[in-house]
Batch of 4 targets.
Target 1
Amino acid sequence: MSETKAAVTYYQEALRRLGELGRTQTEVIQQAADLCADRISKGGLVFLFGNGHSRMMCEEMTPRQGCFPGFVALVELALSNHANIVGSNGLRAPLYLEGYEGYSEQILKSYKFGPHDVFIVISTSGIRPVIVEMAMGAQKRGLPVIGIVAKAHCEVAKAAHSSGKKLTDCADIIIDNQCPPGDCVLELEGLEWRTGPVSTVTGAMIINMLRCAVAEGLLARGMKPTLLPSHQFVGNTSAAAQLELFYEDYRKSLRHLFE
């Protein structure tokens, strides 16, 4: 298989899965957005958590151009900062921590959650103990949980948590990111493992569909969200003023975390 053919094959497969996402998940994404919009309109916050690569979906929600107060990316660097692969801040330690039961509870204890908060937990596999316990811990605190997961992987994978539960067992709303078991979609002759993961493509689509639907829902509730403008409009005084407004409104949105 030539490089050109491989690139086109991946492109086509990613588009196919995006099509399936639009066909099968629009309704549940809207359901999740309605929940988030309702809670944000009442002063609540929507927390997002994902370890490893899934943390990118948290940061795709916020801070990101076009984002607005109400969302909090809960990014634990010990579980996510492993770009060095080996050595300091490498991959071994985070992979170990993902399987360490009790770790999520220590993260959750650092936050004070309110009665209108929501939790989004993102994991393609949906089986790691840190993910399962994050969802369970949020539910124990009275927060509804939205899970973004690959159902095809989660259903066939063996539970890694001692309870036998997976993310699909601990979420009130489940959004399927349409990824296959193992995430990768491309087989190349000469390689025993597939390449071409698609969870970034479908996950980012889900996050942005959710963001847009929440913004629409807030407007329908009479609440105008304060958007983060593009940082690329250098010298644009209107963009600079909007950025300061965003900072202040975001600060105010976090007030119940520190009361």
Target 2
Amino acid sequence: MKPVLYIVIPCYNEEEVLPITAPEFLAKINELVKLDKIDDKSRVMFVNDGSKDKTWEIIKDLAKQDEHYIGITQSRNRGHQNAVLAGLMEAKELCDITISIDCDGQDDINAMNEMVDAYADGCEIVYGVRNKRDTDTFFKRFTAEGFYKLLNGMGAEVVFNHADYRLVSSRVLNEFANYKEVNLFLRGMFPLVGFKSTSVYYARNERIAGESHYPLKKMLSLAFDGITSLSVKPIHMITGTGIFVSFISLVLLVYSIVQHFLGNTDPGWSSIMVAVCFIGGIQLISLGVIGEYVGKTYMETKQRPRYIISERTYDKSEEK
């Protein structure tokens, strides 16, 4: 029996790029159907993440043009990770496999053929991984690769150079639904679910139109969210730093007492200020990191909904 595939595409202010990439996604669905790899009930699902432009109007127009286009919209903007989650949770009861991919056309959609083949061979999760970053500037390449190395170094299990382009089976998604975190970092959470997985490699393209919604500031924020959501290693580092500083302070205290009795001490304003500023800086950084964990715990205990779907272009009961 051929699997039903839903391509889940988060969209935020994509009115420039959507008319270009939407036909490409539909063409890929039709190609896979003709190759007898997927069922004709497969769909292209757009997830509007509270866009301020005409993105949702375009999605609704596409849905009227072809039954393979469907869309959902969130009640407000909740961020890329929540938009992907909303699409996956919506699709898991309607299909056998999902492939999440960004709308900008940078990820090679031809890699979907390998992903579907890997699923047919028994893999429940297939990660889309960039094989090179030739199109990136040196700064972008350096910061992006450093991002993955930092995450792995801090204990967050992520696939190197993998973002959110992946195939996930409905079986995995049903188990993933038990993960109730409000602070989402999907690329680090799926490896925690387990099941048989593999990777397919592809060359990433330039963005077709519009502007990137992930500048350096958001990338750093995502990295910090990933670390603090999946690892307590920063807390352990603070503890280790505190022990080290305390040891150095104890050595300096003994040294100062010895020098005092030897009569070698002189008033030293600079040395005192350096020590105070150093210890003060360590304390503020430590409090900031601990505060991040406390804040995340606070948000988790509220158990607020991670997404709210306000409108669909289809009747969900008829899609099943």
Target 3
Amino acid sequence: MSRSFAQRGAAMVIAMMVVALAATIAVAVGSDYQLQLRRAQNHQTLEQAKQLLMGAEQLAMLALLTDKRSDSPIDGGQDIWAQPPQPYPVDGGWMLGSVNDLQGRFNLNSLLVGLRDTQTEPVTVPYTVAQQRFIKLLLSLPEMALSRAEAVELTEAVIDWLDSDQRPTGFGGKEDDYYLGDGRSYRTADRAMLSASELRAVGGFSEELWQLLQPHVAALPLHETGLNVNMLTAPVLASLTLGDEPLALDSARAWVEELRAEPLEDIQLFVSDARWDSTLPEEGLQLSSDFFLFNGQVKLGDSVLEMASVVYRQNEQLSVIQRALGAL
């Protein structure tokens, strides 16, 4: 083989390697460009969805404000904000928004009302009115079929999650030593809940129980906030009985349907209704609401984004006190 032939062969190999390298770089640059383009498109879609959700939130607040300016002093199922949501078409997809009355739900922070200083005094037994109602609320979930002892234990665990001491409540209470010893590596909150979803961290509350309980509970910043009887969920209504057992759930569901169709304007009609064994005390019961939950959903192309907000309405002033993408 001549020297010139060998040189031409080497040159050809080098040329092929250069072409291969250039092709590899071109593919890499093209892939990176496509990736960056996709990221930019996703970011643009996300920002567009966020703006649409913020707009839907403002529309919901406008509906709440319009309702407040009406002549009716009550909040009920016939109000404009309480109507079933309808999808609204937007460029490239649709948008959906709904408002729910949070004062038709059990306020978990009300379990703190009436607690004594358990650092120096015995644990409060029998339980406060709110604690008794929560026990009956748990008993009103037919899917779980909880015994009264199990419902009491769960309630005591929530009380210990909220209270500021480290003394277990009753026989089912759970303080820091339980959570640290159970391998969870966290402590009790020892404060009012910021979100009802904190229940998922409380000992004894399974994911199944949380999903069943979620539509019936809230974590409102004012733990003495009353219940709007016109917007009660069926298990919460069932828990208002004066006895140890909740009202039959079928009866509670039928009653809720009546209240949604014809909201009451006189609290006496509710507390003295013949379906109660005896007249209920009016304390903690009302016909209007201050706290609402907005849920929004936007679909743009293949992307879906959700947002939840807690809206506080005081007189004609509205403010968003919590907001999160996804769920609260």
Target 4
Amino acid sequence: MNDHLPASDASTSGGGPMIRFDFTGKVAIVTGSGGGIGRAYAEALAAAGASVVVADIDVARAAAVAEGIRSSGWAAESVRVDVAEPASAVSMAEAATERFGGIDYLVNNAAIFGGMQLDLLLTVDWDYLTRFLAVNMLGALNCVRACYPAMKERGGGAIVNQSSTAAYMYAGFYGLAKAGVNSITQQLAHELGGQNIRTNAIAPGPIDTEASRTVVPDVFMKPILASLAIKRQGQTSDLVGMCLFLLSDEASWITGHVFNVDGGQVVRP
């Protein structure tokens, strides 16, 4: 198996650099792929030959992304999923195996971000916080638990969890959830490594998406960008190369790590 072949080109619609990977015959689930970063991941995987399950709680948005992928001549199916609900995650995994015959890759991108409440840990409504952590942190674990048996049947696979540089900064309950994703990534790398399933995470810096524009207004974004080593906001296409690499066999001895893609926002030893 070789997932890094010069014969295959995959690029996002965001105008990013061409990324050369071949995922022909592979099946990938991308949660939260009805828009934004998840959509970029789903489209890039499909362009590289994978059959893609576009999973999102918003049925209409997921269906539109899947239809766009199919109209380009690639394989995709849309599925509704609430990643906080174990039964919903199981239904997603079952739909993938029924439609495409198995699961090789899982990208846990779903999160509550656009329009999220801005509050302190000390004062945020408890029910809201519980739901938030169920989606943004435990949602990744729910989906892994649902998908890993099918990945094991295929002889292994790879998982990419979506973290954030917020995990390393003061960022309230959003940062708390992403720090939890980092820990889940490291724990699952050990629990699944013996089954030839690798687990890594990507920690984006400030990315220009519709969701981020609703949460972080320009008056706050400008000083953030000024603090970066590369002084511009990231695009969804900036994340695609890392995602495809971590899923590919080129990363076959990489697991349990969190990779910043952040324009130099956070420097870690």
